[in-house]
Amino acid sequence: MTAYADLNKKYHMFSEVADSFNDDSVFSVSDDISAKGFQATAGSRILEGYRPVFDATVVSKMKGHGCSLAGKTNMDEFGSNAFCTTGLGIPRNPFDPERSCGGSSGGASCAASVFDGHIALGTSAGGSVSSPAAFCGVFGLTPTHGRVSRHGLIDSTSSMGPIGLLASRSSILKKYLPIISGKDKNDPVSMVQPDLKIGGRKLKSVAVPKGITDDVSVPVRAAFENSLKKLKSMSVDIDIVEIRNLKYAMPAHYILCVTETALNLARYCGMRCGRQDGDLTMPFDEYFRSFRTKYFGNEVKLRTIMGTYMTIGKNRSDLYLRSLGVRQLVIDDYREVLRTCDAVLTPTMPFIAPKFDEIGKMSSAGSYSAGVFAIPPVFCGLPCLSVPCGYHDGMPIGMQFVSDRWGEDVLLSAADAWERAFDIERPEVSS
Question: What's 355's domain CATH number?
Fold first, then answer.
């Protein structure tokens, strides 16, 4: 426990650390997952002081298997950023504390990287497990949407945002995914699902989208190309394919994401959910406006305004409903490719973890485009896995496997094989 508290002073991965816990089978959850005895703020001032009186289903399942909850990890406010810089705490990358951990599950990836054997549960509304996994040099698995119960999760997006797992070793993912999986009567989004066959299908072929490295940084391109050569040496077939509608996934995701965010966050108005310390003598609309202006961060405000705009009048059919159609087109494209290949393979992020002063100079569009590879599978509800695949100036680089629905077995098999073939580096951490 002392190591967790001491290292947290330097890396800020936890928003809250447990007073005591068993050092064996330790896990953490991001701050939008409910756990008795802990705050659940989703990284927002509007929820400061909220302490759930129940455990989320994933927390109950982990505790039921003898695991100890070490604490809650820092995240972007309501999962609204790619770099984990908008929440109540900003985690520091263990490979370089002047760099970002990625978001929104930045604290979870930091904990998984710093503590060998630790399993961190985070959420992924838009590649928010894969992104920080790549930046922090760990394995990040986002299951099929509906595989893991979201009961007890503070929602910002209803049709996205599965709970995923981050760890320093693939065997840890293999151990804990079956524990947290399964249909849950308390979660209308969870599904009846086929059995999780761990150690089943082996990775025999991958599809690489044509031109996928055209706009990535030189180090990422080099690491990805070297990884393709290594996969070939492992007897994995590489097919170059064209996924016609993949380029439309990003804008369509943004429209759906901000729309769902605006609708879900409407409940935080200072009356029933979240903080309730506003001036109740004010007129109705002025009270809500002043309260949300005071406690929401800038990125959440922007998404709320944009999401509201998407549902006004003709915009609903021209933007929101059309984006739903685009999602189905991208799903169909993925499935067409995955009929003949075990997985689609891309870089995870287009660049290595940026420094905090570099993030401050990025435009909103530039920041959002960082998820160009990590967003599409989550947008489509498909399982994906980020694995370390290279290093540049001491910073890790990741690549991402995407399989068809319920195809986590082939992803875990790929992670296991890759871990044996690739020399994974761990950060040198100190308090």
Answer: 3.90.1300.10
Task: Identify the weakest region by mean pLDDT among 54-68, 75-89, 133-147.
Answer: 75-89
Indicate the number of domains in the chain: 1
* Model pTM above 0.85: yes
The answer to whether residues 228 and 347 touch, using CB atoms and an 8 Å cutoff, is: no
247 Cβ contact list (under 8 Å, min separation 6): none
Range of the domain at 99: 2-246+326-421
Query: Is 61 part of any domain?
Result: yes
DSSP secondary structure string, 164-229? EEEESSHHHHHHHHHHHBS--TT-TT--------TT-SPP-EEEEETTTTTTS-HHHHHHHHHHHH
**Burial degree of 430 (CB within 10 A; 0-12, 13-18, 19+):** exposed
Strand partners, 206: 238, 343
Which amino acid type is present at position 155?
D
Per-residue pLDDT band at 1 (split at 50, 70, 90)? low
Q: Give a yes or no: residue 24 inside a domain.
A: yes
Beta-carbon contacts of residue 289 (< 8 Å; ≥ 6 apart): none
Is 297 a member of any domain? no
Q: Does some domain include residue 378? A: yes
